[in-house]
């Protein structure tokens, strides 16, 4: 009896799945599947909001989903398989693991379903299987930090000499991650450009040799400090040491981990020299509190709404047969004066 009931249940579920799957000829309009790295995080909810807004703009149906955790690679693979069974008109994907979805990417390619990457995209995917990617240009984003910090410290930069030098710290958790190295380079090189406009002796030095330039004894030194590891303890240790560097006039944190390292160091007793602006990247509860209290000058956040919007836009254009390319989804500067504005608050995920 139990076996008979089980068989009936399986048949019912199978018929339900088949009815749900169908193909895209059974639908009115276009259907686009957007598969993120997660869903519960406020960042991904903002991406979803952008994707749905694009769906409304283009008059297409957008399905958005992602696993509970960014460690759930197999869950995302299952979601990809489920959406391929529905024969969507297009797919946007932020892959947790490119290697884990190679079969699905080939399947989509063989079916003529255009796939677009978003956020971190689908790095090292087989040629031609990802039409374009909607993501943050990390160098451009971090340069915003230099643009906002420079006016605050310009006079100190201009007055610096090799006998009485100043230091601007860039705290990074590693020199391997593409996003972190992009932000480190973006801030350091933009600050070097701005500082060189008012002082002829400027250098980039420290733990990211690929961008080092100038004399270590320069009047203005942009010093890259890298944590021993990305752990919270090691980042706090690196921050604590950097805060004691002689001549410190500015401090940039390349991600939330670096920003939290500075906050932890301060909470443990490290002192920020008077008048030193600290700029972070990303958001998070601790960093937002530091900005509200005046410990941090402000921060840069990615624009998850635009990431979602542009991802769907690229898919629609690919379906139409248009030639598409990668899109920089931009970034926003935030501080105590605008962080509660609805359009910025949406981007300041915890």
Brief summary:
This protein has 350 residues and is an alpha/beta fold.
Describe it for me?
The strands form two sheets. This protein has a seven-stranded mixed sheet with strand order 7-8-6-9-10-11-13, with helices on both faces. The chain has a six-stranded parallel sheet with strand order 2-1-3-4-5-12, with helices on both faces. It folds into two domains: 30-136 and 303-330, Response regulator (Rossmann fold); 138-301, Rossmann fold, CATH 3.40.50.2300. Helices cover 44% and strands 17% of the residues. The protein is an alpha/beta fold and 350 residues long.
Sheet/helix structural class: alpha/beta
The CATH architecture of the largest domain is 3-Layer(aba) Sandwich
How many distinct helices? 11
The profile of the biggest β sheet is: 7 strands, mixed
Assembly classification: single chain
Return the domain count: 2
Give the termini distance in whole angstroms.
51 Å
What is the H/E order?
A: HEHEHEHEEHEHEEHEHEHEHEEH
Q: What distinguishing features does this structure have?
A:
350 residues; alpha/beta; Rossmann fold; 2 domains; 11 helices; 44% helix
Summarize the helices and strands and which ones pair or pack.
Elements: H1 2-21, E1 31-35, H2 42-58, E2 61-65, H3 73-85, E3 90-93, H4 102-111, E4 115-118, E5 133-135, H5 138-159, E6 166-172, H6 178-196, E7 202-206, E8 220-226, H7 232-242, E9 248-253, H8 256-267, E10 278-281, H9 285-293, E11 298-302, H10 304-319, E12 327-328, E13 331-334, H11 342-345
Parallel strand pairs: 1-2, 1-3, 3-4, 4-5, 5-12, 6-8, 6-9, 7-8, 9-10, 10-11
Antiparallel strand pairs: 11-13
Helix pairs in contact: 2-10, 5-6, 7-8
């Amino acid at each position: 009896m139990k076996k008979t009931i089980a068989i009936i249940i399986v048949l019912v579920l199978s018929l339900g799945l088949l009815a749900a799957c169908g193909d895209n000829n059974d639908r009115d309009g276009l259907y686009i599947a957007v598969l993120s790295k997660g869903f519960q995080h406020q960042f991904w909810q903002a991406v979803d909001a952008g994707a749905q807004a694009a769906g409304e703009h283009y008059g297409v149906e957008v399905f958005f989903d992602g696993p509970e955790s960014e460690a759930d690679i197999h869950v995302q693979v299952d979601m990809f398989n489920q959406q391929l069974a529905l024969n969507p008109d297009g797919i946007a994907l932020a892959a947790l693991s490119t290697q884990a979805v190679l079969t699905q990417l080939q399947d989509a390619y063989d079916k003529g379903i255009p796939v677009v990457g978003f956020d971190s995209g689908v790095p090292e995917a087989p040629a031609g299987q990802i039409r374009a990617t909607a993501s943050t240009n990390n160098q451009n984003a971090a340069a915003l930090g230099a643009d906002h910090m420079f006016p605050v410290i310009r006079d100190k930069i201009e007055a610096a000499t090799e006998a009485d030098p100043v230091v601007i710290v860039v705290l990074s958790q590693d020199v391997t991650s593409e996003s972190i190295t992009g932000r480190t380079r973006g801030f350091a090189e933009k600050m070097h450009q701005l500082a060189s406009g008012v002082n002829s002796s400027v250098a980039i030095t420290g733990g990211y040799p690929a961008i080092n330039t100038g004399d270590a004894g320069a009047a203005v030194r942009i010093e890259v400090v890298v944590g021993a590891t990305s752990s919270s303890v090691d980042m706090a240790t690196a921050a604590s040491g950097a805060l004691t560097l002689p001549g410190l006039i500015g401090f940039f944190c390349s991600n939330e981990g670096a920003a939290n390292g500075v906050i932890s160091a301060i909470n443990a007793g490290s002192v920020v020299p008077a008048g030193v602006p600290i700029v972070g990247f990303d958001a998070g509860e601790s960093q937002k509190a530091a900005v509200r209290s005046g410990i941090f000058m402000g921060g840069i956040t990615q624009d998850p709404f635009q990431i979602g919007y542009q991802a769907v836009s690229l898919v629609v254009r690919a379906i139409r047969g248009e030639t598409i390319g990668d899109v920089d989804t931009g970034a926003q500067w935030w501080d105590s004066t605008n962080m509660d504005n609805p359009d910025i608050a949406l981007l300041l995920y915890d």
